[in-house]
Each structure stands twice: as structure tokens, then as C-alpha cells.
Amino acid sequence: MTDIMTAIAERRSAKRFDPSVIIPEHELRAILDAGRKAPTAFNIQHWRFVVVSDPELRKQIRAVSWDQPQVEEAGALIILCADFKAWDKNPARYWAAAPENMQTTYEGMIRQFYDGNEQFQRDEGIRSCGMAAYA
Ligand SMILES: Cc1cc2nc3c(=O)[nH]c(=O)nc-3n(C[C@H](O)[C@H](O)[C@H](O)COP(=O)(O)O)c2cc1C
Question: How far apart are CA 31 and CA 80, in angstroms?
């Protein structure tokens, strides 16, 4: 508990990084793993994590990010994207580990909530990305 409170109290948005420090593959995997454990409505997991490692691409992304140096300097660049249509991509699979009747029930509920509701699809996607980013 104390560790969590300390981590929350001491968290800061870092603006500058030592560009010579590259996050090793196993640590990057652990970070992505933590992100994908974040909760999502109906377990839809609408986030998509894109790791950008190509230096030229990072330069171009920096240029369209108000030239903020951290885009190029950070030990890793992860772009968090929301798939607003994830709810419509075989949603029963999000409940594949649950009994079959639950899969059917949840698939129906997902369609009821999301189908035709573009604003809600967008809100949920962005909300879930925010939670994954904080994880
Ligand atoms: C939605 C959002 C967008 C942000 N965008 C940027 C950004 O483009 N560049 C940046 O340096 N910090 C950005 N920040 C970080 C804020 O500047 C920072 O959280 C705020 O100043 C408080 O500082 P702290 O996070 O260190 O407590 C963003 C934060 C949020 C929540």
C-alpha cells in the first residue's frame, strides 16, 4: 500500500530523457504487459499498442507533436491507439474462457450498447486507452 501511494505521489511527466538509454526488450514487454492488464468495458480491450522504434519515423512524429523532444529522446515510444470498432470484431472471443451461455449473453449486450452509437464507441475507446496509459 505504501509503495503504491509513494509511486502515485512521486509520479511526474518527464519531459527530457537521456537518448543514449534504450529500454531493453524484456522491460518493454513488461511495460506493454502491464498496459494490457488494464480494465476495459466488457473486456473488449480496444487499445492497440504501437511501438515505434524506427528513428526516422520518431523524427517525423516529433515534428507533428509540437516538436517535443521526448518523442525522440525517450527510451521507447509507444503510441496508444483505440480501435473504435473492436466491439464488432467477433466479440464472443472476449469471453472465450467463460461458459458458452455467458459468451452469447455478453455478445448480445455488447451489440446492444455499441451498435449505432458512434459517440459511445469513441468515448469507450479513449477511456480505455487512458486507463491503459496510466497502468
Ligand atoms: C491529456 C494530457 C495531455 C498531455 N500532453 C502533454 C504534452 O503534449 N506534452 C507534455 O510535455 N506533457 C503533456 N501532459 C502532461 C502534463 O503537462 C502534466 O501532467 C501536468 O503538467 C502535471 O504534471 P505532472 O504530470 O508531472 O504531475 C499531458 C497530460 C495529459 C493528462
Answer: 13
In this prediction, residue 134 carries a pLDDT of 85
Q: What domains lie within the chain, and their CATH numbers? A: 15-134 (3.40.109.10)
For residue 12, the 8-state DSSP code is -
Closest ligand 1 atom to the C-alpha of 65?
A: 8
Task: Report pTM.
Answer: 0.88
| pLDDT at res. 111 | 96
- The atom of ligand 1 lying closest to the CA of 70 is 11
Q: Which residues contact 5 (CB under 8 A, 6 or more apart)?
A: none
| Structure confidence at residue 21 (pLDDT) | 95
Residue owning the nearest CA to atom 5 of ligand 1: 13
- For residue 68, give Cα distances in angstroms to 17, 51, 73, 87, 107: 11, 18, 9, 34, 42
> pLDDT below 50 — which residues of the chain?
none
Q: Residue of the nearest CA to atom 12 in ligand 1?
A: 13
Nearest CA residue ID for atom 28, ligand 1: 13
